[in-house]
Design goal:
Number of strands: 33
Number of helices: 4
Structural class: mainly beta
Largest sheet: 7 strands, antiparallel
Distance between the termini: 59 Å
Length: about 425
């Protein structure tokens, strides 16, 4: 059966070990499916089946996103269904250990809602600096990532506020009510085809093509559902890293070729399954920054790991960036900044003028200056010295972007929202 792009599709899944799927399916058909049919739900079989190997998985079709939410609310309130799920848990031998039956009913693909549009307020202006907060139209004062799309619009990944688009005059916010998988986002990526990808907290990754949201989770082959960072390599493969900077959800990395997911973990040579950063250098090596185990370099065949014993500034690496001189920069927690020129490693800490040794992000501006967002402010490196940005002193800054007009944008995680700098010096 073909998917109708005008309709909403939701997935109902149960966490079941692969060796027990057959037994579980029989019990599901006998006890749960008739109750779902009573609510007008019959399993839909799309042409492209999910690739899940760890779950029992069914897809259902709905006329609209709103109809899905209404039906899901009714199911949660249906005592017969709740009792059937309890009976299923007791009857199925896989739960003899006492582990609860985990089930999920979430949107898989749907026409995107319009979002909530708010005229942007004037913000707080001070000379060349301007800040925007909730009162100016932001859905959240915590900004985890910033991206400028090919149209020139800014996209903000927020904590608890969803995805926010800023076109210069309006903020448009997309949430789960518009088809986004979660309102807590860690990362944003635009692929070579112009699709936007949103890495979420515990709900997989959502793809937005301008018309529809489609969500991929572990049920589709993704290795984990907390996606802290993403990257696209030069062959068009997408890489999804699991885990976030607060030590949650790291179970490896997934590579997506547009049809299939391939998983990489410590069993394949990664230094850690908790990945915080991904970058590809000019020699096509992929670099993975880990939570406490240094960085792993992947040449397409093998992983090679570098730690503080090899000169790395710190083993917890939050961001990796290659500048125009082909120097690799590593942002670490506690060790400051590391720079690798292909032969030698150098480090920059508070003793060298860095604002804080906990560095969250790295960006290069059009003049070659390197910007570092830290837990306590922002610094710019001009090639010879580090300069503190007084206007951002003490701010937590996990995201920095230079737009096509040369303006710098800073996303904060300490409640100060979005900050823009219009100047040159």
């Amino acid at each position: 059966m073909k998917i109708d792009p005008a309709k909403c599709y939701a997935s109902l899944s149960f966490d079941v070990p692969p060796q027990q799927l057959a037994d579980f399916e029989s019990l599901y058909i006998d006890r749960v499916a008739p109750l779902l049919k009573g609510h007008g739900l019959s399993a839909f079989s799309p042409e492209k089946r999910p690739t899940a190997k760890r779950s029992f998985y069914q897809i259902f079709e709905f006329p609209s996103l709103g109809e899905f939410f209404s039906t899901r609310d009714l199911l949660r309130q249906d005592p017969a269904l709740q009792q059937a799920l309890c009976d299923l848990e007791e009857a199925c031998p896989i739960f003899a250990s006492g582990d609860p039956l985990l089930w999920h009913f979430v949107v898989h693909a749907t026409p995107a809602g319009p979002g909530e549009i708010t005229s942007a307020g004037s913000g707080n202006r001070l000379d060349l600096w301007q800040s925007f907060c909730i009162r100016d139209g932001l859905p959240s004062a915590t900004i985890n990532d910033i991206l400028q799309d090919r149209r020139g619009d800014l996209w903000l990944a927020t904590a608890a506020g969803g995805a926010c688009r800023y076109d210069g005059t309006q903020f448009t916010t997309f949430t789960i009510r518009d088809g986004l998988a979660s309102n807590t986002l860690w990362s944003i990526l635009e692929d070579c085809e112009g699709n936007l990808w949103f890495g979420t907290e515990s709900q997989g990754v959502s793809r937005y093509d301008g018309q529809r949201f489609t969500t991929f989770t572990t049920q589709d082959g993704l290795v984990g559902d907390t996606i802290g960072t993403m990257a696209e390599d030069r062959e068009g493969n997408l890489w999804f890293a699991t885990g976030d900077m607060y030590d949650a959800g790291g179970v490896g990395v997934s590579r997506f070729d547009g049809r299939h997911f391939t998983t990489f973990t410590t069993r394949d040579g990664l230094a850690s399954d908790h990945i915080l950063a991904i970058a590809q250098d000019r020699e096509d090596h992929l670099w993975f920054g880990t939570y406490g185990h240094g960085v792993s370099r992947y040449d397409g065949q093998h992983f090679t790991t570098f730690t503080t014993q090899n000169g790395l500034a710190g083993n917890q690496v939050w961001s990796i960036f290659e500048d125009r001189q082909k120097h690799l920069w590593f942002a670490t927690q506690g060790g400051g900044i590391g720079r690798y020129d292909g032969a030698h490693c150098a480090s920059f800490t508070t003793q060298d003028g860095l604002a804080d040794n906990g560095v969250m992000c790295i960006r290069e501006d059009h003049s070659g200056g390197i910007w570092f967002g830290t837990w306590h402010g922002v610094c710019r490196y001009d090639g010879t010295k580090l300069v503190h940005i007084e206007e951002l002193a003490e701010h937590n800054v996990p995201a920095i972007l230079e737009d096509r007009q040369g303006r710098l944008w800073f996303g904060t995680s300490d409640g100060n929202g979005l900050i823009r700098y219009d100047g040159e010096s």
